[in-house]
Amino acid sequence: MDSIRKGERHCLDQLAQTLGGGPPGSRVHTVCRLLAPYVAEFIGAMMVTLTVALTSRSDAGYEATNALAPLAIGAMVAAMLYAYGHVSGAHFNPAVTVAIYVRGKISFLTTVVPYICVQVAGAVAGAQIAARVVGVQYLPTLELDPDVVSVGDAFLLEFLYTYALCTTVLNTATTAQLEGNQFYGVAIAFVVVAGAAAIGPITGAALNPAFATAFHSIQEAAREGSPDVWLYWVAGMSAGVVAGLLFHITNNEETDLRFLPPAVHVNTTLEHRAAAVGGHTKTYHETTNIPWMETTTDTVDVDRDIDMDDDEHDEHDYNNENHHNKHSGNSVGNNNNNNNNNSNNNNGVEEVAVHEEESEA
Question: 317 and 245: one domain?
Fold first, then answer.
C-alpha cells in the first residue's frame, strides 16, 4: 500500500512539474507564468459568451430558458471571476480592461493590448461553439431595431450599464480599503444580471465589446455587414474611460505609487503577472508598497506598541507607588520614632519630678 501511495505521489509530482513548467526560475516555468493570465482571459470570455449564446437562443421551445438568461449569465460571470481573479484579474471585457488601465493598475502594451486580443478571441470561440451546437440562425445578433430604439438611446443605455459594470469592478476589486473581500464577484455578477434583464430586450445588453464582435462575426454570413458593432465598442470603451476617471475623483485616498510624487516612490512595481487588478489578489499586496497601508517587515505594529506603552505605563505607576510607599513608610517610621522620643522625654521629666518630691519629703 505504501508503494502505491509513493508511486501516485511521484506521478502527480511529475505531472505538476511538467505542466507547471518545472522548478521556479526555469525558462519553461517563466513562460507558463507569462501565458497564464492570457489563457485565463481567453477561457473566461469564451465561457461567458457561450452561456450568453445558449441561454438567449431564438428557436422555439426555449422561452423559459430565455427568462432565466440574466441569472445564468450572472452566475457564470461570478464563477469565472472567482476562478481566475487571482490569475489574470478576470476582466473578460475590453471595457473593464480599459477602466483598470485608467485606474493605473496595468500597462498598455503588456496588458491592455494582449488582453483585448485574447478576450475577443475567446468570445469568438464561444460564439462559434454555440453556432455549431444550435445553429447560427438561432443565436443573438445584437442588431438594433429602429422601431424599438434609436441609435442615440441605445448608445446611452449601453454606456450607462457598462459604466455601472466598470465602476463596480473598480470599487469592489481594486481598492485597498476593501482588501481581502469576497463579495466582489457577487457584486459584479449582479450588475450583469440587472443589465441583461433591464436592457436585454432593447439593445441586447452586451455590456462587452468582445461579445458584440463575436456575435456580429458569426452572423456576418447571414446578413449584410455589421453596422451596429461600432456602437458597442464606442459606448463600452467610453464607459470604461469615464469609470476610471471618476474613480480617481471619488477615491482619491486610493491614489497609489504610480501617481505619487517622485519623492515618495520606492523600489517596487505595480505590475505583476496577474495584472495587479485589485486588493483581493495576494500578489497585489506582495508587490505593491502602499504608503498608508505598509505591509513590509519594517511596518510598525501599532497594537504591540500600544501594549508596550501600557506595560511601561503600568511599570512606571508601580515604581511610583513603591517609591511613594517607601517615602510614606519612612515618614511613618520617623513619626513613630519622634513619638517614642517624645514619650521617653516625657517619662524622663516625670521621673525627675517624682525624685525631687521624694527628696523634699
Answer: no
pLDDT higher than threshold 90 for residue 120: yes
Query: How long is the chain?
Result: 361
Greatest Cα pair distance in the chain: 153
Rounded-to-integer distance, Cα 68 and Cα 280, Å: 30
Cα 127 from chain centroid (whole Å): 30
Domain that holds residue 361: 301-361
Q: How confident is the model at residue 255 (pLDDT cuts 50, 70, 90)?
A: low
Give the cell for residue 203. 439593445
Q: In this structure, which amino acid lies at residue 56?
A: S
Backbone torsions φ then ψ of 150, nearest 5 degrees? -85, 165
Grid cell for residue 225: 455587414
pTM, two decimal places: 0.69
Residue whose C-alpha is closest to residue 126's, from 46, 244, 53:
46
pLDDT of 317 reads 56
Contact at 8 Å (CB) between 114 and 42? Answer: no
> What distance in Å separates the CA atoms of residue 202 and residue 178, rounded to the nearest whole number?
35
Structural domain includes residue 3 = no
Same domain, 136 and 222: yes
CA distance 249 to 279: 19
Nearest of 30, 20, 38, 34 to residue 88 by alpha carbon: 38
CA gap 262, 249 in Å, rounded:
21
The pLDDT, as a whole number, for residue 203 is 86
When divided into structural domains, the chain yields a total of 2
Tell me whether residue 170 is in a domain.
yes
| 87's grid cell | 490569475
Q: Are the C-beta atoms of residues 163 and 98 closer than 8 Å to each other?
A: no
Q: Is there a single domain that holds both residue 268 and residue 350? A: no
Do residue 282 and residue 170 come from a single domain? yes
Final residue belonging to a domain, choices 249, 269, 293? 293
Q: Would you say 41 and 100 are in contact if contact means Cβ atoms under 8 Å apart?
A: no
CATH number (domain holding residue 145): 1.20.1080.10
**Strand, helix or coil for residue 89:** coil
